[in-house]
Each structure stands twice: as C-alpha cells, then as structure tokens.
Amino acid sequence: MTGLLEIRNLSKSFDTTKVINDFSMEVVEGTICCLVGPNGAGKTTTMDLITGRIKPTSGQILFATDDITARHEHLIARAGIGRKFQVPAVLRDMSVRQNLEVAYSRQTNPFRNLFKFRKEGLKEKLDEVATLAGLTDRLKERAGILSHGETQWLEIGMVLMQEPRLLLMDEPIAGMTESEIEKTTQIFKDLRQSATLLVVEHDMGFVRNIADVVVVMHMGSLLAQGSIQEIEADRRVRDVYLGEQEAA
Amino acid sequence: MGNLYHNKIAQWIVYVVFFAALTIIPMTVSDSFLLNQLATYGVYGMLALSISLCWGFGGILNLGQGIAFGLGAYGMAMTMQMQSQSESNPIPPFMLNNSLDHLPLLWQPFQSTAVGLVLAVAVPTLFCAAFGGIMFRARVSGPFFAIMTLAMLSAFYTIILDRQAYTGGVNGLTPPSSFVFAGVEVDPYSPTAYWVVLCLLAGATFVAKLITQSSFGLVTQAIRDDSERVRFLGYSVAGYETVIYTVSGLIAALAGCCWVMLVQYVSPAQLDVGFSLSMVIWAAIGGRHSLLGSILGAFIIQGAQSYLGDAFLATWLLILGGFFIVVVRFLPNGLASLVESGLGLFDRQRPTSSPAPDGGRPMPAE
Amino acid sequence: MDLGSLINALILGVSIASIWLIAALGLTIIYGTAGVINMAHGELIMLGAYSSYMLQFYLGLPYLLCLPVSFVIVALVGLALERGLIRYLYNRPLDTLLATYGVSLVLMQGVRLIFGSDPKYLAVPEIFQSNVMIGSVSLSVFRIVVLLVTALLVLALWLLFYKTRFGVQVRAVMQDKEMAASFGINSSRIYMLTFALGAGLAGVAGALFGVLAIVLPTMGASYVVQAFLMVVVGGGSLAGSVVASGVTGELQSVFAFFTNDTFARFIIFVLIVAFLRFRPQGLFAQAGARR
What we know:
Keywords (chain A): ATP-binding, Nucleotide-binding, Transport
Radius of gyration of chain A: 18 Å
Shape of chain B: globular
Strand content of chain A: 25-35%
Number of strands of chain B: 2
Domain ABC transporter (chain A): 5-244
Largest sheet of chain A: 6 strands, mixed
Oligomer: heterotrimer
Number of helices of chain B: 14
Radius of gyration of chain B: 21 Å
Structural class of chain B: mainly alpha
CATH class of chain A: Alpha Beta
Order of helices and strands of chain A: EEEHEEHEHHHHEHEHEEHH
Number of helices of chain A: 10
GO cellular component, one term (chain A): plasma membrane
Number of domains of chain A: 1
Strand order of the largest sheet of chain A: 6-7-8-3-9-10
Largest interface: B-C, 39 and 42 residues
Protein name (chain A): Urea ABC transporter ATP-binding protein UrtD
Pfam family, one (chain A): ABC_tran
Helix content of chain B: 55-70%
CATH architecture of chain A: 3-Layer(aba) Sandwich
Distance between the termini of chain B: 16 Å
CATH superfamily of chain A: P-loop containing nucleotide triphosphate hydrolases
C-alpha cells in the first residue's frame, strides 16, 4: 500500500534555523492521519510546505505519485489538496453562500468563468455541505459576523466544496464546544469513506477518537509514528509531548 | 424583499432606464457644441467605469489608467492624422518641421484606417496584459502596484514628450479633419459622434456588469477580500487579476479613441499623473463598488467643473479635493453607498416581507 | 566617449543624486516608520518653497535662515495633517494614498488662490549664484549647498534614529507596534512626530528647490513620483534611500550624457519598474513598516 501523500526527507530553514529537519512521513489513502507535537515542532510549517505556501530547502513531496514539491499554491489545490487554516481564513466581506460558492472550484480558468453564470452540480453540493456544516440558516449572513465555531465550520465547508482527495485540517476543533466536537468527529469519520485526512490537533481526546495513524513531530523531525495505543505507550513521546500536556 | 439595492433585476432596470435617458439627449439638445461636450462626458464615464471594474471589483488600484487611455488616444490620433495625408503628401507637417524626410516605420501601419483602429485598441490592451501579467505573477499588489502604475505612466509621459519627431512632443497631435470610417465622416459635433460614444459606453457597461455577476466576478471579489485564501481554493490569483486589469485597460483604450474622435487632439497631458488620479476620484466619489455610481461620479464632477468654468476652477478643485478627503475618510464606498443605506432603511421598515428570490447577497456586485 | 566626460557625468550625477535624495528624505521617514504613502509630499515641498518666499518677502529673512524656519512651518502643517486626517487611516494604506492626494489638491489650489499662478522667485546670496570648477565640470555653488544640506540632514537623521532614545522608540514601533506599546511606548505619538519630521524635511527640500527652479503652486507634482520611487526602491530605510538616490542620480547623469535628460528619465523609470518586479521589497527590506 503506497501513500496518497508522501513526504521524503523534507527540510526547511529560515535564515540559519532549521525548522523542518529531514522529515519523512506518508498518509495512506482513505485514512485519517493526525499530526501532533509540541508547539514549534513544525506542524503548521509542514502544512505550508505541502500546500506550496513556502518552498522547502530540500526534500520531496509526492501527491498520488506526482512530485508537487514547490509547485504554486493554486496548482497544488487543483491537484486535489484542500486546506483549512489554523486561524480560520474565510472571505469575511462575502456571504456564507458566496464563500461556499467560490470554494466550489471545478472550473478555475478565468476566461471560461468570464461569462459563466451557472455551475453544474453547485446547488446540490452547496445544500449538502451547508447541511453538513449546519449553516443552512446562515447562508445569507456576512461571513465576518459568524461566531468562532461557525467560522470554523464554514472553512471546513469550503474545503469540502473543493472536493479534494486530501484534506489538511489545521486545528479544526479549536474553540468548539463539546457537542460541536462530537459532530466534527462524526463528520471526519464519514469523510474517510471518500477522502483522506491529515489533521493537526492538540486535543488528544479528539485524536484518540478519529486517528488511524498518529505521527509525532518534535523539533522539525519525526519522533514516532503508529497507532494511538503505540504512541501513548511510547516513552519518548511521553517525555517531550504528552507529559507536557498532562502537566498543563 | 431584501434591500432593493442588491436586487439584480432592479439593478438591470436602473441601468436600462439610465441609458434610455441618455438616448433622448440628442433629440432635445440642438446646440452641437453642448452635444459634443456631453459626448466627452461619456468618455469620462467609460474611464470611471474601467476604474470601477478594476479597483472596485478587482481591488486593484490603478493610478496609471492614463497609459491605456493615452495609447488608445495616440493610436486614434495617428489614424486620423494619416487620413488627412495623401499619396503626394504622405508626411504629417509636424514631422517635416522636425526634419523627418520619410514616414517612420511606427507610423506606416496607420496609413490604413482599419489597421490603425485595431492597433489603437490592441496595443494598450496587450500592454496591460503584459504589464499586469508580469506584476501580478510577481505578486505585486496593493499600494505597490499603484506606485508601479504611476512609474510606468511617468515613463510613457516622458518618452512621448521626448520623441518629438514621432509623437509631436509637448504639442501633441492635432488631426486637421474629422474621422472618416467606411466612407462616413463622423463630425465630432454631430449626433452620430454622440451615438458612437453612447453605444460604446452602454456596451462596455453591459459587458462589465455581466462580468461582475459571473463566476469570474465572484472570484475577483473573493480575491479583493483575501487573495491569499483564494489561491488555496485552486484559482490562479495572478490570472484573474491580469484579466480584469486588461479588460479595464481595453475599456480605457476605447475611451481614448472616442476622445480623439470628439476633440481631434491628443497631447502628453492625457498621460499626466493628475488626469489618471482624477479618474480614480470620479469612481471613489461616485462609489467604486457600483459601475453606475462611478459613471455618474464622472458625469457630476466633470459636469460641475465645466459648468463653473475656468474662473472658478481653482476654487472648484479646492472644494473637490476637500470633498474627496471627506469621502475617503467617512464614506469609503462613495455616494452610491448613501443610496444603498437609503434603500436599506426602507427595507428595515418591513422586516416581515418574503425572502429575496435570488437568495440575497450581502456584499454583492452592487 | 572619453574618460574625462564620463568623470564629468559622474560628478554631475552626485549633484543630481542629492536632489533626488532630499526630495525623498521626508517620505522615507514617513513611509519607513508608519507605512503611509503620502501623496501630498510634493505639495509639502511646495509649501516649503512658499514659506521661504513669504519669509523673505514679508520679513526680509536671509536665505539661509529660511531653511530652518521653513522646516518648522511645514512640520507644523504636517503635524496638523497627521492629527486631523492621517491617524484615522493607518490601517487602510490605499485610502491613505487617496486621502493624501485629496490633501495635495487642497494645498495646491489653496496656494494658487492665495498667491496666484504666477511664478515667485527666491533670492539667494550672490556667492551662491556663481559657478565653481570641479575637475572640468562647472557646477553652481548652490548645487554644492544642496549637496551639503542633504549630507548634513542625512547625518542628523542617522544620529537621531540610531543614537537617541527617540530613535530607539521609533525603531521599536516599526518592528512591532503592540510589543512597543507593552514597553510603554506611545506609538500614536511616535507616528505624529515622525510625520511632522518628514513634513519638515519636505519643507527644507522646498526651500532649496525654490532656488533651483521657480516657485509655483504646481511645482510639487513633479517631485512626488520620483521621491516615491526612491523610497520604494530603497525599501523604506534611510540607507536604502541614500543608495537608491545615489545609483539613480549617477545613472541618470550617464544616460543623459548619451542621449538627453528626458530620455534618461524614461530609462530610469523603466529600470525601476524592472528592478521592483524582481525585488518588490526594495534594496534593504526591513521588518515591520511594510503594510
């Protein structure tokens, strides 16, 4: 079984500081992989590297066996990688509906879109995602006025509208209530039928519920990889990460 | 009901009524000088429209729209100049004064009216596509792009000023006779000239309005909101920015052609920084998020300026500057936003009415 | 082209560079600190020239005294401008650009209404009007004065920004406004003072330009675009503007030697656009400041 996403010997330095250091991992198709680690371990930087926001100093990123290293952001997105940002990034001046509509990006060519007024399948998809994200009643609202939890949902909804093969979720449940977390857990599990997820999350309870595989990062490198039981039993992980969480 | 201002059908009705009203003018105005002046307002309206499209919808502040306008105007002036030259007298007089004894290569295509017209529109448009493409690909945006357009405008201004033998230098070009197209003379003081301008203005507005309501328009608005986020949805931000900047340049180039047709004159003053900035002022005061608002902004400001006349020009510009500051500070979306909030008040009085048929758009195209 | 004339062009280039630089100095301070794109900078220069004119005409002040007094007058105008308008627009860079253009219209037309459109002239001591030979170049003494004043101001600014407490505060605000605030630095006050300082520098430039060229209400317009380009090419730092002006002045002088002055300016504009395409952050990018 080969990974949908393969990261090979990835390194990234800012000036002289090595933020990512010879990091390798893979995400198998149809699974949920959780990326955990203490603050500053390089999780978000890894996401930035995968989505092309920053370019690696060395190493390779393969998506569905295509080399996507250092491609432009929009090409990586088109290849089938959707991303939810750590600080929810929605289009604040536009309505919830417009946010979802823009995210429905089957046709990205500016010339083809110039005089295009109807998008095939948009209505069904939008209804489906809005229902899933619980935003059906909020479609007309301006995205800027949504609560924090709703904004998180909207951005997850936007990623779903993109219909990506791989979803990158950077701290999806931050700021959510217990019941919202429960709902997210269910949705993520459902998503696994059709897509693959790479989730960065601090909440170990949530990770325990959804993760097929857990990858632990520390100081920009791979510390451990395995099932949640294996990770929780791992001494090194307890030392650098889990122990710290218990203390907090 | 929703705010009527955001109702697409209502918007189209207002646009149709507006242009219908403009078609009545030539039947009521008999003063040909006034008609010519009204037609030049149409040209300013096209320029304001182009700024509204680029800046209001695309979020790209262009302080160098004079480039597209000026290049279009020079192309048209060259075409008209060559129409006045004959086989026996192929060289425009100002070139002879600059001791050129043959027609420069640059001018030769303009001997044909059709080729000249195509070049007058195509050159500025292609320039915008190339310049915009290069800049947006390098992710130059916001105030930086504005300054780059200023620099480019200054570059064109100086080169036209400098190459006197080819451009007429500071005196510019003054084609001696009216534009002749397909055997028909377009007298700048005739209703025909007015109709030409009105048709182009209405056509450009129609196309621009369609663009803002299409999928393309939605993406450009998203880019205006947060260009970084839109990249991760799979859209080439540079591609969209280049297209809207180029379409805007195309409209300005058409305006340049019309302008020369109406006034039979072009000089580097049309590429002056001040003129490009006044286009921005028209759109800003009228309301850059509204195509119609911007056009009306140009009409009102230029209308008031010529109505008050040269004697009050300094006072008028002083007031205009002050008013512009107030608008930017307190009314960033211009006078059109007053209409929007006015209609919004009307809507709030009837909160129980049925939901809008088109789903209602909070921050939409208009 | 022989070596001698190239050296002449280079010497003349230093003088051109000093003019580009002094026009850009005030803008550098304002843009570098607060990120404000002040389109009224040209009109502040114009006000400096008119201040000197008034000081001479009504008070009979000697020219050299006009320089510092013009500084103070225009600095006060800048202060009023910052308090009355700019401070409301700090997080809206495009709007600042537009609003300051409105200010430039108001200032230009206001001056035109008061003083009329006819040119005014500044009187300078006779010695400034003579020429000196440097190598084989004949340069007016006044251009050397401009060069000296520019050098003096750059030195003073360097001392102010790198050797005083105020300078430390300014740089702290540039780096991180919130962080600076937590150390008890009042960023609003810093912005106000730097804006006034930048305006004052424009005033000095105006007092000098009023002699190099004639004093007109529209004189500012010709300086603002080139001043901006120096600041943007330099990246908003003092050293950046010095280097940018130096290189631009020399290039312009050399190009002008081959062609003519106007064409040289054209080449400079195109080169700057090309340069910024590949290095949008300018020569010396600095943290903060930018947007």
